[in-house]
Write a structure and sequence with these properties.
This protein is an alpha+beta fold. It is about 40% helix and about 30% strand. It is built from five helices and six strands, in the order H-H-H-E-E-H-E-E-E-E-H. Strand 5 and strand 6 form a beta hairpin. The radius of gyration is 21 Å and the shape is globular.
Length: about 160
């Protein structure tokens, strides 16, 4: 009888643990809503945009000089947020992946932006209290057919003497 009670308790405990973990589909839906809201925060210059990033979060922009931690990125972006409109990114497609325990989530997305089509990837930590972006990298999607032309323009630009600002 004692073994039966212990076995029943262990089964109940295991069932409760499984039931407490949302399905991958539920987590994926929540992640998509979170990232969409993050992009919408930027489009509407809401400072909540930066609150969705981890304190030690990293943002990598399209220029080779654009690698910031969250607070540096916030300082750089202040001029855009002050004018009440920053940048507008809308997901065309997003793929979401996660660790088995759903604590770490990574994604890639194809975006419609003011720069044209861009690609991005990100890493999100599920803190138990919500999501926070740990790392985000944005790049301009350059079609292979014009990559040589773009590469040539970049080389020409970098060969020019630096101008004073």
């Amino acid at each position: 009888m004692k073994k039966l009670i212990v076995s029943a308790f262990l089964c109940l405990f295991a069932f409760a643990a499984v039931a407490a973990t949302p399905s991958e589909a539920e987590t994926r839906q929540k992640v998509n809503a979170f990232v969409d809201e993050w992009h919408d925060d930027a489009a509407n210059a809401r400072l909540a945009y930066f609150d969705k990033m981890a304190k030690d979060g990293i943002y990598i922009g399209t220029d080779k000089t654009e690698l910031w931690n969250r607070d540096e990125f916030k300082a750089w972006a202040k001029r855009f947020f002050d004018r009440k409109k920053a940048w507008a990114f809308t997901a065309i497609k997003r793929n979401v992946y996660m660790s088995e325990d759903q604590k770490f989530i990574w994604f890639d997305e194809l975006l419609n932006t003011q720069m044209g089509i861009c690609q991005a990837s990100g890493v999100i930590r599920n803190t138990g209290k919500g999501f926070e972006i740990q790392h985000y990298q944005l790049s301009i999607a350059i079609p292979n057919e014009v990559a040589d032309k773009v590469t040539k323009l970049v080389k020409e630009h970098e060969a020019q003497p630096a101008t004073k600002k």
